[in-house]
Design goal:
two-stranded antiparallel ribbon; 12 helices; 2 domains; about 375 residues; mainly alpha
C-alpha cells in the first residue's frame, strides 16, 4: 500500500509502506520528511469521540510551521500543478487543431501562474544545472548595469583628472572607486550565498545592509592578506620595473594575476562553505575533495575572465583620452560583462554545493547569515 505524504511547501509525495519510519527529502524544497506508518482500520470498540481540531492549530512538518486549514486546497493545487507541468507543452497529438492547441497552451500557462500563487511558489525555481544558472545574470541585469554605470563613470573621471595637480580630488575619486569595488564584491558574495542557501525567485543584493557590507569588506581584506597579496605584489613590482612589455612579460603578468585572483576566489568559497579558518591551502583542498572540482574550475574561469576584462578596461582608458564617449561606452560594457560572468559563476557554484549537500542530507548546515 502506498503512503501519502504532504510537505509544508505543498508537494504531494508517495512512498511504499515498507519505507514507513524512514526519512526522505522533498524534491521541491529539500525538507527532511519522515514516512508515516500505514493506517489501520479501527474497530467499533476503538472508536471514541474526538473533539474537532480548531483551524488555528499549528502543525509542524519538517522544519517549518504552517496552518492546516488550507491543507486540502494546497494539496489539490499541488496535484493539479504537477499535472500541468507534466502535460506536454509542445506536442498535443493529432487530436487538436492549431487553434485548440494554442488555446490549451494559454490555459495551461494561466493555470501554472495562478497555482504558483496559491502554492506560494517563487517566480522561478531553484536552478538544476549550469544552463539554468546562465539565466541568473539576466535576472540581475538591472543591478549589473547600475554598478557598471557607477564604476565606469568613476574610472573615467579618475583617468581624465590624473593630469591635473589636484591630488586631493584624485584621492577622493580613487577611494570612491575602491569602495565601489568592495560593494561589487558584496553583491557577488550575496549571489554566491543565496545559491548556497537554496534561495530562488529573487536576486539578493546587500542594499544598505551595513553589517553585511562591513563583514564582506573585512572578509575580502583578510583573505587577500592571507595569501593572494604575494603574487599580486609580485606582479605589480614586475610591471613597475619591466619597462616596455613584450609578449613573455605579458604572459608572466597574466599568470600572476590568474594565480592571485583564483586563489582569492577559492578562499572565499572555503571560508563561506565551511569556516573562516578553513581559508587555507589545506581547507581549499578539503573543500575540493568534499564537493568536487567545480569550485576549482569556477575559480580558474573567474580569474581568467577578470584578468582579461582588466586588460580590456585598460584599453578602454587609453581610448578614453582620444574619444571620451567611445571610451566610456567600452568601459561600461566591460563592467557589465565581468559582472555577468561572475554572477553566473557564483550562482552556479552556490546552487551546486546546496544540491549536493541536500542529496547527502546536509542541506540544513549553517552558513553565513544573509
Amino acid at each position: 500500500m502506498a503512503l501519502h505524504i504532504v510537505c509544508a511547501c505543498g508537494q504531494t509525495l508517495w512512498a511504499d509502506e515498507r519505507f514507513a519510519g524512514h526519512e526522505m527529502h522533498c524534491p521541491l524544497c529539500a525538507r527532511t520528511l519522515v514516512v508515516p506508518p500505514a493506517r489501520t482500520v479501527p474497530s467499533e470498540a476503538d472508536l471514541i469521540a474526538v473533539p474537532p481540531v480548531p483551524t488555528s492549530t499549528v502543525v509542524e512538518v519538517g522544519k517549518d510551521w504552517f496552518d492546516p486549514a488550507p491543507l486540502a486546497e494546497r494539496t489539490m493545487a499541488a496535484s493539479v500543478y504537477q499535472l500541468a507541468e507534466a502535460f506536454p507543452k509542445d506536442d498535443f497529438g493529432d487530436l487538436y487543431s492549431p487553434d485548440k492547441k494554442k488555446n490549451l497552451e494559454r490555459i495551461l500557462h494561466r493555470a501554472r501562474k495562478e497555482l504558483a500563487g496559491i502554492l506560494q511558489l517563487p517566480p522561478w525555481p531553484l536552478e538544476n544545472g549550469w544552463r539554468e544558472c546562465m539565466l541568473y545574470p539576466f535576472r540581475a541585469m538591472g543591478l549589473s548595469m547600475l554598478l557598471a554605470f557607477v564604476g565606469a563613470s568613476a574610472a573615467s573621471i579618475i583617468a581624465l583628472v590624473t593630469a591635473q595637480p589636484e591630488i586631493a580630488t584624485w584621492v577622493v575619486l580613487a577611494g570612491f572607486l575602491f569602495a565601489h569595488s568592495l560593494y561589487v564584491f558584496a553583491c557577488l558574495r550575496s549571489a554566491w550565498l543565496s545559491g548556497l542557501h537554496g534561495e530562488a525567485g529573487f536576486v539578493r543584493w546587500p542594499g544598505s545592509d551595513v553589517r553585511f557590507l562591513a563583514q564582506s569588506s573585512g572578509l575580502a581584506a583578510a583573505l587577500f592578506l592571507a595569501g593572494p597579496i604575494v603574487p599580486a605584489l609580485t606582479a605589480f613590482l614586475f610591471w613597475l620595473h619591466a619597462g616596455d612589455l613584450h609578449w613573455i612579460d605579458r604572459l608572466i603578468l597574466l599568470e600572476l594575476g590568474v594565480l592571485s585572483v583564483g586563489y582569492f576566489i577559492l578562499e572565499v568559497f572555503a571560508a563561506d562553505a565551511a569556516k573562516l579558518r578553513q581559508a587555507t591551502p589545506a581547507g581549499v583542498l578539503r573543500l575540493i575533495k568534499t564537493v568536487g572540482h567545480l569550485p576549482l574550475t569556477a575559480a580558474l574561469a573567474g580569474s581568467v575572465g577578470l584578468v582579461l576584462h582588466a586588460w580590456a578596461g585598460l584599453a578602454s582608458l587609453r581610448i578614453l583620452h582620444e574619444d571620451p564617449g567611445a571610451g566610456w561606452a567600452l568601459l561600461f560594457c566591460t563592467w557589465v560583462s565581468v559582472l555577468s560572468w561572475n554572477y553566473f559563476l557564483c550562482r552556479w557554484v552556490g546552487v551546486y554545493i546546496y544540491r549536493r549537500r541536500a542529496r547527502a542530507g546536509r542541506a540544513g548546515e549553517q552558513y553565513p547569515r544573509l
